[in-house]
Amino acid sequence: xxxxxxxxxxRTPYVLLLSFPGINVVSAADFAGxxxxxxxxxxxxxxTGRSGLFPSRYQSDRIDRADGPLVRRANHALxxxxxxxxxxxxxxxxxxxxxxxxxRAAGKDPRHTHVxxxxxxxxxxxxxxxxxxxxxxxxxxxxxxxxxxLLAFHTEHKTPIAETLRDLNYALEQVPRKEYKAEAQPLAAxxxxxxxxxxxxPRPLNEALAxxxxxxGVGSVQSSESGDSDLT
Length: 232
Known about the structure:
mainly alpha
């Protein structure tokens, strides 16, 4: 089931979200499925508005409370997808984990932190998908790599090589050309490691990586002079 979802997901610009550290194939595909075409959203607030990711407001006479629970009328499936990603970011993304720790020390309600991270994700995700660009953030030096993360997903799910190569090629069509060189680096490292094993690794994977690297504009992978692996 997850492999089938991934096969649809890689055909959309939402695959660019895999460059966001802390977001995996399943959570990004879930978000994409609930979102629909990004063209349906004029700005990031349209996402948080549709998902009801804002507090309800109670007004009566002189009473005006704008800090109630999240509004009831909303797309709850989209809200759940966003908050699931917020969970991942708090646990697996150093920047958002640090923010959550800071807010917790300041006495903020954990629910506030959860929603706040979700709202920030929506803002960044909108600009990534609508602008067809990979993750960039001033507080994080490096991004994740889309094709490498997708390959790891299919390796874990033991996807046949033909399907893996198909999905990598579809995902590549969504990646900006200026990012090809960066996307090639982890794949080239994987291929080099397989080559250094002296043919002990799965040969179809070697060939698939070579095909993708060729599309990325990278030719053969050269081993270091010492012959020792410099991979960690």
